[in-house]
Amino acid sequence: MRVPAIIFPADPLNPRRPDPHFAWEARLLRELGGRHHLVDHDALLGGDAREAVRQVPEDSGPLWYRGWMVPSARYAEFAAALAGRSGTLLTSAAGYAAAHELPGWYRVFEGATPDSTWIPWDGSAEGPGPEELAAAVARLGGSGPAVVKDYVKSRKHEWHEACYVPELADLAAVGRVVGRFVELQGEFLAGGVVLRRYERFERADGAPAGGDGGGGGGRAVEARVWWLDGRPVLIGPHPDTPHLAAEPDLADVSALVRALGCRFVTTDLARLADGSGWRVVEVGDGQVSDLPHGIDASGLLASLIAA
Ligand SMILES: Nc1ncnc2c1ncn2[C@@H]1O[C@H](COP(=O)(O)OP(=O)(O)OP(=O)(O)O)[C@@H](O)[C@H]1O
Ligand SMILES: [Mg+2]
Asked: Domain named ATP-grasp: which ranges (predicted)?
């Protein structure tokens, strides 16, 4: 059996080297006896996958990717271009979309993650109209606070402007926050608009995350758990709070990760402020989830090349 290699983005300024953001992972991989190849991320995003994989040798065998997020359609082109060179990404295009986009993983995690609904984006600049928003609000129960994001990302740093909706029953306010979110995401809006019921997560300073208590959103203490073939191979902090360790209870989440059926994924877990347990904030594809700097990733990388 051949040992998988890992593909990293090339440094745009020095295409024979890994992008500086991933250089430490590539170095660690080498120390562990692993091999890496490079992909031209800009060419991949620009729709020229064949050019993007030019540096990956022919017949490269099993491959993982560790790099920047790419839209699911671009990932499919990436996988096809590698297949054209007899290389096999160990996460299929369908598997990538399932873990990377909320509608791909939501049904499996429903009940363990905040209630959510979504409106696919048709590519028009305005985003969803008032009737579509009213229908989405009704699907979420019609009242209470909520969070706005797209299939992949939020604008958590613009919490009050483009992320947090204090009251869903205020349809004008829903329209304002969603409108601003769509405007700020622009051409990068992934898939569609998601509305999620807001839940009070435990925060580093003891107050609930987000809300009006000051500090804005995105400050919940989250643990990022890295799963390979249904087993947790690394449990660390979320990259936003690299110094805050958490020890999540994984009993229920393990079964859900196995049910999703993707080989390499992450789950971000937060504890409810009332102490009643852990919630899945989001699921991600392990290939494009950020690793906090300074974390010991040797077990993770060793598992990937032993997979
Ligand atoms: N339903 C929710 N209830 C309460 N807080 C939430 C909810 N959804 C998101 N948040 C808060 O907003 C932050 C950003 O949300 P989320 O993780 O879904 O978006 P993201 O932009 O994909 O983040 P990441 O940086 O992890 O990729 C979360 O870390 C959490 O603190
Ligand atoms: Mg997140």
From this structure: 140-304
